[in-house]
Predict the structure.
Amino acid sequence: MTEAYIVDAVRTPIGKKNGGLSGVHPADLGAHVIKALVERTGIDPAGVDDVVFGCVDAIGGQAGNIARTSWLAAGYPEEVPGVTVDRQCGSSQQAVHFGAQAILSGTADLIVAGGVQNMSQIPIASAMVVGQQYGFDTPFGGSTGWTERYGDQEVSQFNGAELIADKWDISRDELERWALQSHERARTAIAEGRFDREIVPFGDVTTDEGPRETSLEKMAALKTLTDGGRLTAAVASQISDGASAVLLASPEAVERYGLTPRARIHHLSARGADPIFMLSAPIPATRYALEKTGLSIDDIDLVEINEAFAPVVLAWIKEIGADPAKVNVNGGAIALGHPLGATGTKLMATLLNELERTGGRYGLQTICEGGGTANATIIERL
């Protein structure tokens, strides 16, 4: 069986809402990381078999197959195709899965997999809002089959996060302590230059804009998102702008271009869970990945699990029995931001670099996704 290698992984700095990247066209954000990959690896762009990009809310500047428009905006050959993937928050992680699967099947040798999202320009759920303006149903309203199965239960990430906090008995204090740690870890990572190898500055934006100095006292003063709830804005991921990309290669492409692989795809899969809880699927996804590989959680040196909300991570830790010291060691989306379609390959870039920095072997990445699904990827440092 052939291998699918990770040759390089890059990302823009992550811009905060209405920050330094907010005015950049999404195709130009995507083009920026694509050009960085090509220039850093020295590949012939004409040799790329496909460009697979993740993006959510594909309207406006993100419509029309952003994978294709990003590649063309980078100035590369028209003969190379592109395709855009929407698996909600895990879209670019799924882009890696599709790219790796093409290589593993022998039908491709060189894939650019990544994602882009400008949430300042196109707010989350814009596609649903536009549909409603034209009188169309929402994904969860108007479907006879959906209503017969799930009734009129609220379907939202906020409700899902509250349900998780309640089911796993995670207190507001625990949530805020994790959020504070996320900011502290992120600020330390930036100060120590841990992101330097993965970040490709965009103009004057050279570092992540999200991390800030805060305190438990400041968090405790915030109002909860719902009456009687435990969630506040402090324990949720930040609205962000950015792009990221990974170059995947077969052994043949590695030899042809004289590349040096940095990691191999050890495992890739996706699982589903209750769509009303929505954000709990990283638990079964992780269990499935470990079962399929014969690894235990103790074999995993580092974990990147997207901090859509703090209860997602804390419930996962409780269920999987993971060591919190190995989880999101450089901070997570609460501090660094969550540019939806770009988050998957952003986290993979961070996971790859941190494995190299610490000498770890296996890294696990998992992301909760709208609709109650989750991807799980295990990479092995070479």
Observations:
- Residues 6 and 248 are 5 Å apart (CA to CA).
